[in-house]
Amino acid sequence: MCLQSVQKCFKRSTIVPIPKKPRPSGLSDYRPVALTSVVMKCFEKLVRDFITSSLPASMDPLQFAYRHNRSTDDAIAHLLHPTLTHLDKGRGNYVKMLFVDYSSAFNTIIPSLLTTKLEDLGLHTSLCDWISNFLTDRPQSVRVGNCASSTLTLSTGAPLGCVLSPLLYSLYTYDCTATSSSTIIVKFADDTVVMGLISDNDERAYLEEIKHLENWCQENNLLLNISKTKELIVDCSKKQERHYQPVRISGTAMERVDNFRYLGVHILQHLSWSCHSNSLAKKAHQRLYHLRCLRDFRLPSKVLRNFYTYNIESILTGNITVWFGNSTKQDRQALQRVVRSAECITHTELPDLQTIYYKRCQTKARRIVKDPTHPKNRLFSLLRSGRRFCSLKTNTERLKRSFFPQAIRALNQGN
């Protein structure tokens, strides 16, 4: 580290294309994963932990990836709560969400620009120079099966597969923040959402925010994938007919969709969760077949229960805190039938989804309360008694049943 350089043998990597979908049709359907030195990976972990401990806690609060006490639940909850709150304020309000996709985001990082940003964050110059050296003059070759390409030396990007790459990308994009009080930019690694809280049909701030993002991408060598960038409009007003302004990036109108899968959760334009629940139920039912096969092999109930916990329950309860509260009775019953089927197969009593949801709301709420740097920590304010938390004001049932009001209610009931 003191030498501010990395030996080339530790920089060398082999790129293995991994298909993103079952039947890839082009190069963009492959993910270039870098196989690097095991020794270097171990050292990268030490550097990553040191960088993380050196960063200011308040840096980029809406980047929810690779940070302590942050997860996909937090990113989705932060996306939904402003949406529901804004819709709760008036019938004429609506929300626009632009789900941004980047083309090879990690591979477009410019080391010199990253070094400047790291220095601005207060990291030591020698560490910044070491990172710059780590990312430049990297020998790479591509391997497909038994065939390998010739070696090419690159000085741009952070290889996908390196331990440091996700953190470096987060630091590279830390200055990509909203410029208006009516817009929000939520990030989970390179999954970026631009939100516009629209009132009185005034979309100027939202459109200006997208223009600002486009300019920021050009300045930072990031390329927007226009074909995969989608816009979703959340408008629960049934009486008003609106004319929404189209979003254009580089002169191309963005496709408008009525649902989008964000961080594993299906978000619909009317914020119903039937589509997501049906998807979970279908996937869980497929796993029940394997559970029955294990039962037929006469494996102990403990083994069957462990299989259920890690392979079926994990599906049913993924991000459960953000969607279960607003799911319908029919959707909950459909999911609970999967649990009952598993109970019959394993001959053991399994926790119901309502109990899991309640406990996870409590657990996550306690973590947020203890973390003053969490962007939603301010929602948990104690009453004068110092024992109970102040309930959030809600006008609609969908906001009342969302995560943060439910979490506060769960904390108060537990006290």
TrEMBL record:
Protein name from the UniProt record: Reverse transcriptase domain-containing protein
Lineage: Eukaryota, Metazoa, Chordata, Craniata, Vertebrata
Ranges of residues in domain Reverse transcriptase: 1-267
Entry's Gene Ontology molecular function annotations: 2-oxoglutarate-dependent dioxygenase activity; methyltransferase activity
Pfam families: ALKBH8_N, RVT_1
Organism: Electrophorus voltai
Highest taxon in the source lineage: Eukaryota
InterPro entries: AlkB_hom8_N, DNA/RNA_pol_sf, RT_dom
CDD domains in the cross-refs: RT_nLTR_like
